[in-house]
Write a structure and sequence with these properties.
- The structure is a homodimer of 383-residue chains.
- The first copy, chain A, has 383 residues and is α/β, with parallel strands linked by helices.
- Chain A contains 13 helices and 11 strands.
- In chain A, a hairpin with a 2-residue loop joins strand 5 and strand 6.
- Chain A is globular and about 55 Å long.
- In chain A, 64% of the residues are buried.
- At the A-B interface, helix 3, strand 3, helix 4, helix 5 and strand 8 of A face helix 3, strand 3, helix 4, helix 5 and strand 8 of B.
- Strand 3 of chain A pairs antiparallel with strand 3 of chain B.
Chain lengths: 383, 383
């Protein structure tokens, strides 16, 4: 396998794009990535999307988007719930790395806000185990609430101890023009937010949205002299039981651990060499579990990093969610993994102004599908 | 890229499996493929499925099936409407060919018969253009009916001229224990069948069903001495406009042509070297269009091959649908592409008794998603 790099990125603002179709959003991100790279053609297209069949009545999205951008080649959609974006990137990486093709666009896209909230909640629940979790009446946020409650009980944390994850995300999003919620919040706002599924309140939970993000993948040996090119040094995926109740240790994200280990080995780096980490904070509890599974904190000690101010872009030991994360940049589910990649490239290029991580050379992004059932981790490096 | 081979195949009967879950069906096919190969482990799993999110309320099917078979590695779902099965195979081929992994299972699975027929009809329509076709009230069979009517008008064929496609498929299915409709039909039955969307009647249209089919992919250089191993010599994919009305020549399957050309070039074979062709006869008109686009008939002359008895397994120039095709083996949409592959392997191994193509050495399979919007073609060879 040959090494690969990203030479172009593109994204739409995450918003309620009521007047725009899903193909239109994907097209904007794709053309922006091509323009960013100064390219006009691609060999293949890989789309990450979770819900278009269910809430837009549109399957075969690979063909739909290929058609929209005027492309006739190989184009497939990859779905792994909320990790669909990173799964699409991984499919694109393997296709280029194999030598079969010389360029691929990976795009993540989702359009969620045209549907009624109850419809979206039902649709998101399809990321869990339909036969053994949903049949019991639990929602997706409900599953995460059960995990968070158990975690607080097991390790003695209070709800307010999770506040730094949310405050950091919102503060960072204030400097991201593409963020869904680009404003800082206070501790008081965090504590007084409306309850969603106890102990998860509105400030623990990420907002849905419409958006698309894309990256252009090419062989690494073709980018000599291109200072904006970023090396994809590691790409690892793993799965865990679909039901939370089937896990021996429900508070440990085994697939996060396995996929990160694969990415570390492939990239030849250790956790302490990672300069920043775009993690999957769909709910604040997931920030803690992700940091622990990837080797940045002991089990049960993830919130400590936030409380000790170690997750901020300006001087923290392991800055996270530097562009707002899922919490404040937004979580258009199947697109999220590609937003993380686009943002990781922005950091490594030094394009993040107020939230720039100084001297960032190695960044990691982790995308989670279901309650930890499918997890994809990428490590990117400057060249 | 290294060459790859299939060393194990498995399938369930296509039926109304009301008492079995989608993961259970996938598991049966996967374990059968592993047993057939005498293997117990895999490096990655690629699932082809179109509708589980929509009609089973289950997304993240890659993780669901991995969990069911006790696998923790990379597992994604690929969706390209009715060509999802072949798209999953292609993803598995590239992953093994790249050298990243040494074995992959590709499985196609669909469970459709638990839902009400109207619900299934709506779900299948998501393979077409939601914004520009479905909004006009057309169904998926309706789109194919428009194509068939135009074809009959343009080239002067009668409805009965398409009968050989259906009669051949049903006759062949009678010898396939896994077929959904394993019985021969008569010309009279074909002509008197209930109309679905004129001119397509029930004998022009393939039945839905529940089922799963799987194949184990490994590097070709690892199968020395294994006489049951089959070489995947060519794998090509292409896309066309999602809307039929956007095509300059709506009666020519451009993506079938492009994907077949890629497969021919990769395999180093010409159409006249293909010993049999498992094509995508979702509707009888598609048999004609597929034969034409792949170089077996002049444009507008596909039905002639049937009328001249050239599509039968016993002595025809280009035998098609040798195990019953979509028409009689059945069409569990996202699984169909993998049934075609399993059947192609069976032919090349010489395991098809009454419908065995004598001395078959090179077989082709073509899987179509949407009304020709995404098409994947594979060429398999004996070693």
């Amino acid at each position: 396998m040959r090494e690969v790099a990203i030479i172009g990125i593109g994204q739409t603002k995450i918003d309620e794009h009521w007047k725009r179709s899903i193909r239109d959003l994907a097209g904007e991100a794709i053309f922006a990535a091509l323009q960013d790279a100064g390219r006009e053609t691609i060999d293949a297209l890989f789309t990450g999307n979770m819900l278009s069949g269910l809430i837009d009545q549109q399957n075969n999205l690979g063909a739909v988007i290929a058609d929209w951008i005027g492309f006739k080649g190989e184009s497939i959609k990859v779905e792994s719930a909320c990790s669909s974006g990173a799964s699409a990137l991984q499919a694109g990486i393997i296709a280029v790395a194999s030598g079969e093709i010389d360029s691929a666009i990976a795009v993540g896209v989702e359009k969620m806000t045209d549907s009624a909230p109850t419809e979206v909640t039902s649709a998101l629940a399809t990321a869990a185990d339909s036969d053994w979790e949903l049949e019991q009446g639990v929602s997706f946020v409900g599953l995460n609430a059960l995990i968070m409650r158990r975690y607080m009980h097991e390790y003695g944390w209070q709800h307010k101890d999770f506040a730094p994850f949310s405050l950091n995300a919102h503060a960072n999003a204030a400097n991201n023009p593409n963020a869904r919620l680009p404003f800082a919040i206070t501790m008081k706002q965090f504590q007084n937010a409306t309850m969603v599924a106890a102990p998860i309140n509105l400030m623990d939970a990420s907002p849905i949205g419409d958006g698309a993000a894309a990256a252009l993948i090419v062989p690494l040996d073709s980018v000599h002299g291109n200072k904006r090119a970023i090396h994809i040094a590691g790409s690892g995926a793993a799965t865990d039981t679909i039901s939370v109740h089937s896990r021996k240790i429900p508070l440990f994200l085994q697939a996060a651990y396995l996929s990160a280990q694969r990415a570390y080995v492939q990239a030849g780096v250790l956790p302490n060499e990672i300069d920043f980490f775009e993690l999957h904070d769909a709910f604040s509890i997931m920030s803690a579990l992700s940091l622990e599974a990837c080797g940045f904190a002991e089990q049960g000690q993830g919130p400590r990093l936030g409380l000790d101010n170690e997750i901020r872009p300006n001087g923290g030991r392991i800055p996270i969610c530097t562009r707002g994360g899922l919490k404040a940049r937004g979580h258009p589910v199947g697109a999220t993994g590609m937003y993380q990649i686009v943002e990781t490239v922005q950091q490594l290029r030094g394009e993040c102004s107020e939230t720039q991580v100084a001297d960032a050379k190695i960044g990691m992004a982790q995308n989670i599908g279901g309650s930890g059932a499918s997890i994809v981790t990428h490590i990117l490096k400057t060249i």
